Amino acid sequence: MRFETIIGLEVHIELSTSTKLFCACSTAYGAPPNTQCCPVCTGMPGALPVLNRKAVEYAVKMGLATNCEISEFSRFDRKNYFYPDLPKGYQITQRYRPICTGGYLGVESEGCLRKIGISRIQLEEDAGKLIHNEAEKVSLIDYNRSGIPLIEIVTGPDIRSAHEAVEFLESLRLIALYTGISDCKMQEGSLRCDVNISVKPAASGSEYGTRIEIKNLNSLKAVRNAIEYESERLKVLLSSGGCIIAETRRWDDSNNVSEPIRSKEDVQDYQYFPDPDLPGVYIDRGWVEEIRSGLPELPQTKRRRYIEEMGLSEQDARLLTSEPYRAYFFETCVEECGKPKAACNWVTGPLTRLLKDKNLSFSAPGISPAYLAGLIGMVDKEIISYTIAVNVLSEMLDTGLDAGSIVEKLGLRQIADEDMLTEIVDRVLYENQDSVRDYRSGKTKAFTFLMGQAMKASKGKAKPELLKTIMERRLDQL
Amino acid sequence: MELYKLTIHEAARLLDRREISCTELTESIISRITDVEDRIGAFITLDIDRALAHAKFLDKLGPAGYEKTALTGIPYGLKDNICTSGIKTTCASKMLENYVPCYDATVYRKLKAVNSILLGKLNLDSFAIGSSGETSYYVQTSNPWDPEKVPGGSSSGSAAAVAADEVMFSLGTDTGGSIRQPASFCGIVGMKPTYGLVSRYGLVAFASSLDQIGPLTKDVTDCALVLNAIAGYDAMDSTSANRPCPDYSACLVDDVTGIRLALPREYFNSCQSDEVRSQVIKAAQMFEEMGAVVEEVSLPLSEYSVPVYLMLSSAEGASNLARFDGIMYGYRPDGANSPEEIYKRSRTEGFDANVKRRIMLGNLALDSGKFKNYYLKAARLRTMIKQELDKILGKYDIILSPTTTETAFRFGVIRENTLDKYKQDICIVPANLAGLPAISIPCGFDSTGMPIGMQLMGKAFSDGLLLRVAYTFEQNTDYHIKRPMLHRGDVNAV
Ligand SMILES: [Zn+2]
Q: Which of A89, A269, A279 is opposite residue B322, by nearest beta carbon?
């Protein structure tokens, strides 16, 4: 029997506002426990929430970037339930009037662009963090995270594979990065995801199968593995005539299995009602347009432009846009040197590798894109060879100097003087008479060796084509 | 001269002329408290040393040392659900028996800034849920006019303390009449300002969309002075109104010419006491004689206001009280090991039956299966009730009615007939549902000598006009001057 897997995602993205959603406490990551909290975010009796305007702006940004309708009137609701990390006994979220509704995101899948519907984007507050100390048998609570703004993005049941789910999440992540609304650090929990999944026989029409929810996946790898595991599990169950129960499961990353969450945790009758402490939010149309016009070029558009206008390959375009700072570096460099292909090769190749080696990043690379453009120009004008240029780039990153200064300082200018090169070649041929004999007896490999020796003798500075010509000529003349 | 008997405006004049010192005034009040507190039981926390030290400090600084307003040097009390940093705020509950807030409510911060002298924290129905003061975990407050009778609630201590001259004024909170009803029962002035006029920041919430802090005072002039001190926009409260406040003292004009008063038939018909009804009608006639226009009106939705109030306040209350879970602060029994056990036992043992009843009612209203038929229906009715009131207040300046449908009742009555007592709130809850200002002022006594209160309710932000009409009545009557006899010294005073 053929089966179809139906997947919907609930994605939580932590917004990178400097203060929390309803108070002035800092949102900085990694502070000592309970040093970034106040009466409001610890739910002290009598404390009241005041909405952070920046968080609304960020939610609107995400809404606009994902083709959503921005609500003119939005409101906050209380989701009432008990949990030790929830200081007020309710979470302030948006059940009835979310900020954004009815959007979509195009996702590339098997060569075509599929529209994944976004039913809503809502603003809500995060809870505190429970820290269990097994040795001392105590549980501690850190409220630094309590009240940090999140957006929850809820998709329609439009995703059909683990690949699409990961593509969708990666697109969301990039949008969040490009618009600057989140740093999306999955390891710090800034991007988390719940997966709703069901499997049905392909022939069964539009009826959905029984739904399973997998909670709190916090890496793309976990999302992929969980979906693949779960859909396989459900298919096997269905094929063997088994019965699927709607339940919430957790993903065990180390053993690569999903397991049901104990029913005690699972059964929660959430009560929602409009939060009387927060008046409704009217979102001004003019403000929305202002935000729209301030949106940067989004990664998908950028990618298309790189391919269509700059003639780059799909793979290169993807690589370049996978990080906003890398794309920025690339584009600025192209503006300076006018050579997209060369800039792309340098940015995705040696520069990426060297930054990684030196523990630097595109957000603070230590050199300006114009410097790379200068280096590309020198290679182009044959002032230095490509190989030397890579070393020069490394030196540039270490010193912050431009390519010209380093080439001059280290005397790396390419040797294109025939007399000088002939002298080098003659010396090499004299010192390697065995190889010369090999060459004469028809072993072409010997030529490569001799070239290498000559290049080495020139300290890599010899102009390669000229060196080759001279080498061939002298060998013939011998 | 017994300084404790003074009103704020009288005392302020004497302080201003330096005829008395802050210390003398505070000492007088303290000796009064010593004399009558056993009989009244208004305080949960009384900090005489702190109050005296504050008064002495002000005297030492001298008038040049601080900014002077009418409330400077005036001893007062706060209902014990208003947060005071460093001073216990118990909400009259076992749950918060040892709870000391880490921050000040905005109203307390404002009164601190003008150097009013805090005597202590006043009794209430536990978590401000109740209308007799009887559900306090700590002390039974008695009505100063009759020790057998309740002072009303939930601001029981706030009303009784003012009526007994134990404080010169107090702040209470009013969710469904909790300032006005005890003010009426105790024969003093109590006002619930327009929703949003006074910041709720630091008020331990019962029902956020209905709660409002307000003054309880000996007369209307004092009420305006206190309102001046506590009203105003607060960025910490999103429901606070961002608009300028008038000088409420300047609103006090002895003139009601042309003021249009509406008397809702349904409010008067619900009166269980003929004496209450006739006394308020007498007051209406007096207004008419003074040049006001008085007409009977009908508010057909009145019968729904109490059930709607109960539904909505319980729903919000259940949610607001969810934070008392024994995890971070408040009562937690020994030996509770799992979170579930902590919740269950903290809440079972830390809340009294009355609070638990309202939490259960609230959870019922919010239950996902019943939400539409209970909470949403009540919310829709609330809007309709508000529209009905707004319509009448489009034609009239003020809705005049009794505050309560009878005078103070005996202890124990409410336990026997809870639902019947809820119905008494028909005149007072509409102001909360619609966010309107309302004031209760004394307008007579019944045959047993218990005070009768009448209520003036106005358009949103017409607090100044309410005070003016109340002031006019007060200027032409002497009900507000009469004080209960509590102590040997009081006999001569009356
Ligand atoms: Zn905070």
A: A89
